[in-house]
Specification:
Strand content: 5-15%
Number of helices: 10
Bound molecules: zinc ion
Structural class: alpha/beta
Radius of gyration: 20 Å
Number of strands: 9
Length: about 300
């Protein structure tokens, strides 16, 4: 297993070397006059591509369809982080990225959670096997209004780093903010006047969404989607979900729905998918994935 991944990494390094040999690659941090941005996970890739536009080259560390929390970096990806102009990431989501930024990109990492008002990890709602040491909940991208703040600040940061293209970055940041503000308005309206406000989710990714739209998240797992909840935690969630007359247990596309299915059978509820948008959706983008989430929430919560 280890040998195989090492071989794959070596192959990746060799491929990059070949590309350099053919004269494609530019100097460190800039490819053909463009700002080089490394995005740790999909929502940040989406932001960086929108705001960077034709003035930036965006490299995504997490490939589509990959659950990002347990991401391991190849030597080629670490080398890319060492050479990039800016790493956009969220601290405490992907330990491998945190470590690589600390060791290889000091001063070039932008932790987007540091740009917005954070909320504590829902420690009281977490079961066993949590990382638990994160002071705040890192899932800031699930609130479009916080995403809009991040968009503006990312635009400013890119404008400062590459003054020749400052207007482009700021204009595209403003257009992104407009789209996020429209989404935020739709979600505010769509999630007011619901008959329930309790959402049971497989991992506690939706704290900021709940914070913004006055919902209450009951996370079966903590911030690690792969953690197995203890029987005691499952029983506790089942009890609360019954009290709250929860109709739907949410699972997510990239994590086994087994736990959600067990729980929904136990309390006689349905299951539905709520996307933490940590990976690139199979179709569409951040905005359309959030609109699908809105629709799933409206059905589950009985919103008029
Ligand atoms: Zn998560």
């Amino acid at each position: 297993m280890r040998t195989a991944s090492l071989l794959a990494a070596l192959t990746a390094v060799l491929t990059v070397t070949t590309a350099c040999g053919s004269g494609q690659a530019g100097p460190a941090g800039a490819q053909g006059g463009k700002t080089d941005i490394t995005a740790a996970m999909y929502p940040l890739q989406w932001l960086a591509e929108r705001i960077g536009g034709p003035d930036a080259t965006v490299t995504a560390l997490t490939k589509p369809g990959v659950e990002p929390h347990d991401l391991e970096l190849s030597p080629a990806q670490v080398a890319g982080i060492e050479a990039t102009g800016l790493v956009v990431y969220v601290k405490d989501v992907q330990p491998a990225v945190d470590e690589a930024v600390e060791q290889h990109a000091a001063g070039r990492g932008l932790d987007v959670a540091s740009l917005v008002k954070t909320i504590p990890s829902s420690a009281g709602e977490q079961g066993e096997g949590e990382t638990g040491d994160a002071a705040h909940d890192p899932h800031v991208w699930l609130d479009p209004s916080r995403m809009a703040v991040i968009a503006t600040k990312l635009g400013d940061r890119l404008a400062e780093a590459d003054p020749a293209h400052a207007k482009g970055y700021r204009d595209r940041a403003a257009a992104t903010v407009a789209d996020l503000t429209t989404l935020d308005g739709e979600m505010s309206r769509g999630l007011s006047g619901c008959s329930s406000t309790a959402i049971v989710t497989s991992h506690a990714a939706f704290g900021y969404l709940a914070d913004r739209y006055k919902l209450r998240q009951i996370g079966i797992n903590g911030i690690d989607p792969e953690a197995e909840p203890s029987p005691a935690r499952l029983a506790e969630v089942a009890k609360v979900a019954k009290q709250e007359k929860v109709t739907t247990i949410f699972s997510e596309a990239l994590v086994s729905p087994k736990v959600a299915e067990v729980l929904s059978t136990e309390i006689g509820a349905k299951t539905a998918v709520l996307d933490p948008v940590e990976s690139q959706p199979a179709n569409g983008d951040y905005l359309s994935a959030m609109r699908q989430n809105l629709s799933a929430l409206q059905t589950a919560l009985g919103c008029s």
